[in-house]
Task: inverse folding
């Protein structure tokens, strides 16, 4: 067992985790060695691979170390969504256990089955794709998102609204409040964008569809079959909910990168993944989604601007943890310019530039 890593990342003795796993996983061997290793990423929830001999592998997800925004990093939400999706054919990890007993790790965490495969997580992996494979991957990515949005959502619990407009309003309010808790400096562009979003949301109708929303849908959150590039699993459901599907599309478009982008270069997440030959443009992604999902997109600018605001808050939160010495990956040190860049992109959308603002 990798004790120093486990003690630092899991926050406690691995013996408590081993005892817990023996009680909830039928395929866990209490007599075999447990190896804990940190999987790539780590800017938000921490993701660890748990391994034993004979190929037994599971994934442990827990909140980040240090600064945590209220309502963020919700393990219960992620487990609930994965449980609901397990009753469908959608490619998502199989959930195994949710632990809210803080005597084990000091936090709520979840366990799900490990899905092996290829993750396009850096420019080198993207460059290895043939042009035809890159184009097919774009088609699969859009199709997978549309497939998620086509799943019949559960009936909302009593007292919970199924209105997508109210969902967008809650998102604007929530991320505005989160900014006040996580900001490391004054950025007047945030207030300007938040005011525009609040006004824009008031002009929307109430008849947009409500679906499952992933909340962080992007290329490096997808596990692919290494040979066929078929989607094996969509990862990282911590921000999943029922809401407006167009916000998922908007987030994908904001994360997407094209040759010549200016502001996007300052957002040091998923950099360079979609620049190599064969990858579609943002316009092609949008056109294919509209053909596949057949969902209203007249409020795309509102969702694009909201995606920029939301990601600005998330990047500022990671920057906050870096300044506090709690980040666990080196790339987190390069996010000081991310929030200002995203806010400028959002203000470009607010000024009427639409999708072109993401290429500024």
Result:
């Amino acid at each position: 067992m990798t004790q120093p890593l486990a003690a630092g990342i899991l926050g406690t003795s691995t013996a408590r985790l081993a005892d817990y796993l023996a009680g909830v996983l039928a395929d866990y061997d209490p007599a075999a060695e447990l190896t804990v290793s940190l999987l790539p990423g780590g800017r938000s929830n921490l993701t660890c691979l748990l391994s034993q001999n004979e190929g037994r592998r599971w994934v442990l997800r827990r909140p980040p170390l240090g600064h945590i925004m209220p309502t963020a990093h919700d393990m219960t939400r992620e487990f609930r969504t994965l449980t609901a999706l397990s009753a469908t054919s959608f490619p998502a990890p199989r959930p195994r256990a949710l632990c809210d007993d803080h005597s084990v790790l000091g936090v709520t965490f979840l366990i799900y089955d490990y899905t092996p495969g290829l993750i396009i997580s850096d420019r080198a992996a993207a460059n290895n794709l043939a042009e035809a494979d890159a184009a097919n991957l774009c088609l699969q990515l859009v199709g997978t998102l549309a497939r998620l949005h086509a799943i019949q959502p559960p009936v909302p619990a009593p007292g919970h609204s199924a209105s997508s407009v109210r969902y967008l309003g809650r998102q604007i309010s929530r991320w505005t409040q989160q900014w006040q808790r996580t900001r490391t400096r004054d950025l007047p562009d945030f207030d300007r964008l938040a005011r525009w979003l609040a006004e824009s949301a008031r002009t929307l109708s109430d008849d947009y569809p409500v679906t499952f929303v992933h909340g962080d849908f992007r290329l490096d959150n997808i596990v692919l079959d290494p040979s066929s590039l078929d989607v094996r699993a969509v990862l990282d459901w911590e921000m999943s909910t029922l809401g407006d599907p167009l916000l998922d599309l908007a987030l994908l478009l904001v994360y997407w990168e094209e040759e010549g982008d200016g502001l996007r270069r300052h957002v040091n997440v998923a950099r360079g993944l979609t620049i190599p030959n064969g990858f579609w443009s943002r316009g092609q992604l949008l056109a294919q989604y509209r053909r596949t999902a057949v969902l209203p997109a007249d409020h795309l600018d509102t969702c694009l601007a909201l995606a920029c605001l939301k990601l600005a808050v998330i990047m500022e939160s990671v920057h906050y943890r870096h300044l506090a010495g709690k980040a666990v990956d080196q790339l987190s040190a390069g996010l000081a310019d991310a929030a200002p860049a995203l806010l400028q992109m959002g203000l470009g959308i607010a000024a009427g530039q639409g999708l072109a603002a993401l290429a500024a």
